[in-house]
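HOLO CASE FILE
Compound: 6R9
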Amino acid sequence: MTETVTDDGTTRDTESEHPVSYPPSGDFVAQANAGSELYQAAKNDRLAFWAEQANRLHWHTPFEQVLDWSDAPVAKWFVGGELNVAYNCVDRHVVEGRGDQVAIHWEGEPGDSREITYSDLLAEVSRAANAFTDLGLVSGDRVAIYMPMVPEAIVSMLACARLGLTHSVVFAGFSSSALRSRIDDAEAKLVVTTDGQWRRGKAAPLKDSVDEAVDSAASIEHVLVVKRTDIDVQWTEGRDLWWHDTVGSASPEHEAQAFDSEHPLFILYTSGTTGKPKGIIHTSGGYLTQTAYTHHYVFDHKRGKDVYWCTADIGWVTGHSYIVYGPLANGATQVVYEGTPNSPDEHRHWNIVEKYGVTIYYTAPTLVRTFMKWGRQIPDAHDLSSIRLLGSVGEPINPEAWRWFRDVVGAGSAPIVDTWWQTETGAIMVSPLPGVTATKPGSAQTPLPGISAAIVDDDAKMLGPGGNGYLVLDEPWPSMLRGIWGDMERYKDTYWSRYATEGWYFAGDGARFDDDGDLWVLGRVDDVMNVSGHRISTSEVESALVSHPGVAEAAVVGAADETTGQGIVAFVILREGIENTGDALIAELKAQVSKEISPIAKPRQITVVPELPKTRSGKIMRRLLRDVAEGRDLGDTSTLVDPAVFDAIAKAGQK
Ligand code: 6R9
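Model generated. Tokens follow.
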């Protein structure tokens, strides 16, 4: 690339005429939370830096030691400290005189809305905590939360945190069998759900799935149901309870008790390379410290001034860390929206931005690309001048989408923070700092102060500028996962065995440093696909397909997709004697995947093939299938048992 530096200080790519990097404006710098001295402070004394960040929180008992890594790879952060996470997210703001501040501007899909102040939130969370206690739940018990984006979902999470119950939020788009396996794995005693959920103007049942899941789940004692859509539900007396009765009648007074800094806060399941999802465990003090710290600096958040909106669902880690814990710990005023971005029409997000004066907008690249597809006339029809900062998460953002986001949504001036992190990391790890970093479209750029990341090769050699390899985290961090629920061996094996000698965390992402030393995340290097920012494992979809009686074998790959990042492409072999009924069969197979996992895991394309390409050792050659799926010429097929298999696959694909 040829680069020139222009008068205004921006560097331009002279071939494409686009700036290569966008320095922050003087006005932004002048008011920014972060300054470059943060990097220096963290470098001088990393643990002292984290101790200082931990003091953003209210500790019932101060910690004695910042980090105990003696039992690696299971860390203990802020050892000896005791805190209550919900007290930090709710009570503290009321105690400090901010009770009347709006915590949540809630916007329902059908157009209803609720304004919830910190005082309101305290009363609701206290009622829920009293009700959960009356149900016999005690610290250490697990609670499943299977709900759309209604305030009660957040209240339930905070009530769990308040009581030391460990929540397991299951995305409400998941099927009953996905819910069932998560309930079983965690042995949850309570499920909180809603009667139904609004989706594009229609009420879809939700409790039905819970009934199906819980039918034979031994651990469940109660199902607590929020009335949201008023659709009919089946009722099991003694087990099922209405939220408005149970929580509604409980006392709004509740005193929060302190828990150890390492008390488990939640389990969140994420796809791994095998069919069984991993229950990622997060604990309290370190997690809350890093979510609060990153929310403050990465989003340049100003309490009492900003109106923050993260468009994620609480079913994913982004919703946990950047709707619930980080923002509430910082006393934010935020928008929470229940529905889809095109309900009732494609103007919905921009109407919401105008209605509440949103200043910080954090979303996923797939949505930005969808907005691009709908056309800029839609955002252009609105006054988006309140927006001063944009964020991106979930997958690499392509430079075209990045520029469009900045120009169309950010008035050509809002800094964009491209935040790399994972369910496992708990909080943002690599990101520009607004007001400090000259941002670069497509690059997550720099590990945050206090975070250490490296790009290494197969031989554990650390690579410098220009290097291309695997992303590792070579120092522990406060919000790191503490294990996989019920399977510590898998924890060690998945994340710590690849670079066991060095003691580095293997993130599963490929990455490179450009010549300036900025970090670019290239995507997963394992069999995990990234569809619209959702992690879905190839083997999970394969096993859903094989669970159909007509399917003998299946191979699934992620193929590049303009809107969703990756799209799911499946190849299946039918069982002997099964007739290929064409479209009818394909529709049935897609429905099977929706039912087993979720509609988000439904393959974009399914091709029936006579055979699958395998190596001599019996491994399916996914690389070749990806080539087929993306329409590339086939490379080296010499390790295949039978290279002729490909002619047959190519023919089947053309049908
Ligand atoms: C927060 C979240 C994690 C995986 C991660 C990577 C991809 C996330 C990214 C990104 C490039 C970014 N990813 N953010 N890739 N740039 N800014 O998404 O958690 O659902 O666990 O997914 O997502 O591949 O390993 P999770």
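CASE NOTES: The pocket of 6R9 is lined by residues 270, 316-318, 393-396, 418-423, 444, 507-509, 521, 523-524, 530, 533, 535 (CB under 6 Å). Confidence is low (pLDDT under 50) at residues 1-8.
CLOSED: yes
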